[in-house]
Write a structure and sequence with these properties.
Elements lengths: L27 H65 L4 H12 L16
């Protein structure tokens, strides 16, 4: 006869193995594998965070360098704009005797015979 004769047919035998669909690891090897994967995930996340931090710092340093270069170039641009304004003023000024005298003094170093010329002291 069968072994279950006289037993409740609804009761399940005690020697059944847990089903693999339960979601829980059934042995130590599966536990170790899942633990290894979680450690691998943590290490990968750490590497991603570290690389992101390095890239961010690198970009910030490059931004600061470019900002300093931009300020230098703006200062240089202001100097050129001032020089352009001065030259434009010269071009727009009338060509009278005063302009010609000023240009002869500034560009050619000429002066009138009765004019006193003072040179800056080069030893200062």
């Amino acid at each position: 006869m069968s072994e279950n004769h006289g037993k409740n047919p609804i009761e399940e035998p005690q020697d059944l193995i847990e089903s693999p669909s339960s979601g829980f690891p059934t042995n130590e090897a599966e536990k170790d594998t899942k633990l290894g994967l979680s450690m691998l995930g943590k290490v990968a996340l750490g590497v991603v965070v570290l690389v992101s931090l390095i890239i961010s710092i690198s970009c910030l340093m490059r931004f600061n360098q470019l900002e300093a270069e931009r300020k230098e170039l703006e200062a240089e641009l202001d100097q050129y704009n001032d020089a352009i304004r001065e030259l434009q003023d010269i071009i727009n000024s009338p060509m009278d005797d005063e302009f010609i005298i000023q240009q002869a003094k500034d560009k050619l170093g000429y002066y009138f015979p009765n004019e006193n010329i003072y040179y800056p002291d080069v030893n200062d």
